[in-house]
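Re-run with default settings, no changes from the original entry. Doing this only to confirm the output is reproducible before filing.
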Amino acid sequence: MSTIAIISSFADETQCAQAIEELRAAQVGDFNTFSPIPSHKIEHAIGRSKSPVRWLVLAGGISGVLTGLAITIGTTYEWRLNAGGRPLLSWPPFIIICFELMVLLGGIFGFFGVLMLSGVPTTAMAPGYNGRFGEDRFGIVVRCEEAEAARVESMLKESGAEEVVREDGAQPR
């Protein structure tokens, strides 16, 4: 059996989200969605969980604090500069260095985490993408077997799709 792609476009995000929920309930093929705006309705319909970037930022922050402590305490013991009879391990200046490294490494880990998990840079256009999906339409591209194509097309039309187009020879993911 060959895999085909069914491309549908919607004018309303609510209709698009409803179609996604119906596709998920029917467990039909694999699908991609395209949206001109960030949409919480579509995100909820897809069932995507929270991003793991927050854990990367936490790991960066913790490693920043530990690096700050290691640098400040290590430098203090290495150089043994006792200025005016003060204690060698003076925590107030150490806290500033730890805070600064926490913010720096948390930001760096977060930045590279977003790049890594979002697939940036992408080298190829997504199969089935239409330029209108980035302007004023919401799109769903469903890759399924030919036997399921008629059922998928009718589900998308019943959900309020303005246009449903079938492309043969879709690349499986």
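The CA atoms of residues 7 and 141 lie 4 Å apart. The chain has two domains: 3-50+137-168, 53-118.
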